[in-house]
Specification:
Elements (H helix, E strand, L loop, with lengths): L6 H5 L21 E9 L3 E9 L2 E7 L11 E9 L8 E3 L7 E16 L3 E7 L4 E10 L2 E6 L19 E4 L9 E5 L4 E8 L2 E6 L3 E2 L10 H5 L4 E9 L8 H9 L3 H10 L2 E11 L2 E2 L5 H10 L3 E2 L2 E2 L4 E2 L2 H10 L4 E6 L9 E9 L1
Parallel strand pairs: 10-22, 16-19
Antiparallel strand pairs: 1-2, 1-6, 2-3, 3-4, 4-9, 5-6, 6-7, 7-8, 8-9, 11-20, 11-21, 12-13, 12-15, 13-14, 15-16, 16-17, 18-19, 21-22
């Protein structure tokens, strides 16, 4: 790395416009070396790791955030040194400026430096969310990798699964003991599992087809979930003028081939992702949990974005929801047993599809 300097930092910014600190003040000495990790919603979401060094903050942009597991390394791009006042910076960098977007502090704390060279930086972080021994090692140019050297803090933590299969319902009448079931509307869209990690979401439909590129308006789900590792089950739905699912509009989106056609159909027939189950959460499968607990965890994610939501589920009184679905010309309802696990790839009587 080059000699610490704020020249590059200042050259990239207009301090009459941006609220970022210019770094003109003398930094206050501290007993321990400090670090900060900032969540930066710029053109693409990333996290900035900054380590105090010789009166400035040596900085790396980490697209997928701080890795919690030594089994996975994350790219870290070395950027310009930042002033010490950036340890506390949060705010909106105006559009048109370098790094435009919202920045907030994801974690901060102190660190111990075990090694610092032009090719390798080894530190022990003492934060609230980022703790343990990490090493940054240079691969080429400004590209480095960030590796956790310690075992995961959670010894039971697992990596995000790559390919799950959706659970399927059987068709039938409303169950007699409807107090033992949760009821949801049938959205009659494109069934898709959403995998989100490091602020990036991808959508897998029909068991294996990655349809993320066909529905660009859904990309925002990844930044909304941030560093959470999540697998969701749900449906991609195109709504008609009456607010009901429109299969014809959805098929027009699926048929679009070129990027230009995808953009045109996205403007004409926008879609939304309706999430109704949670299969994995932050290092832990949830499929063995009962539906009622999975649903509680799903609701805790507070999914409510411009193109994604977790529609309300109702416990009991399925007949009332079915009548409402019929009145609104919806396809029907699904009854899901409160105490049953998620059976990936299985058509199970624990889920009953009741058509209008």
């Amino acid at each position: 790395m080059s000699t610490p300097s704020l020249d590059r930092y200042r050259a990239k910014r207009d301090f009459t416009v941006t609220p970022e600190p210019a770094g003109d003040d003398t930094p206050t000495p501290a007993r321990a070396l400090r670090f900060v990790v900032q969540e930066h919603h710029a053109r693409r979401l990333h996290w900035d790791l900054r380590l105090e060094c010789d009166g400035v903050l040596a900085s790396w942009a980490v697209p997928k955030g701080i890795p919690p597991d030594p089994a996975v390394n994350h790219l870290a791009v070395h950027t310009e040194d930042h002033p010490m006042m950036y340890l506390d910076f949060e705010g909106d960098i105006p559009k048109g400026n370098y790094g435009a977007g919202t920045m907030s502090v994801w974690d901060r704390g102190t660190y111990e430096c075990e090694k610092w060279s032009d090719r390798e930086v080894m530190v022990v972080l003492h934060g609230t969310r980022a703790t343990g021994r990490y090493v940054l090692f240079r691969t080429r140019g400004d590209d480095w990798m960030l590796h956790r050297m310690d075992p995961p803090e959670d010894p039971d933590r697992q990596l995000l699964p790559e390919a799950l299969q959706p659970m399927l319902a059987v068709q039938g009448p409303l169950p007699d003991d409807d107090a033992a079931y949760g009821f949801e509307v049938i959205w009659d869209g494109l069934r898709a599992l959403a995998y989100s990690e490091g602020g990036r979401a991808r959508f897998q439909a029909d068991g294996s087809d990655d349809v993320s590129a066909r529905f660009p308006e859904l990309r925002g789900l990844g930044p909304a979930l941030g560093t959470l590792q999540v697998v969701l089950d749900g449906e991609i739905v195109a709504l008609g003028a009456d607010g009901c699912p429109d299969r014809e509009r959805l098929e027009s989106r699926r048929a679009a081939g070129s990027e230009a056609a995808i953009r045109r159909t996205a403007e004409r027939a926008p879609v939304a992702y309706m999430a109704y189950d949670l299969l994995f959460l932050d290092g832990h499968p949830t499929v063995e949990l009962p539906w009622a607990e999975r649903r509680r965890l799903l609701d805790g994610l507070e999914l409510a974005g411009p193109s994604w939501k977790a529609p309300t589920a109702h416990v009991g009184d399925g007949s009332a929801l079915l009548e409402l679905a019929r009145a609104q010309k919806l396809a029907g309802v699904v009854a899901k047993h409160l105490e049953r696990p998620y059976r990936s790839g299985v058509r199970s009587p624990d889920w009953i599809e009741v058509r209008s």
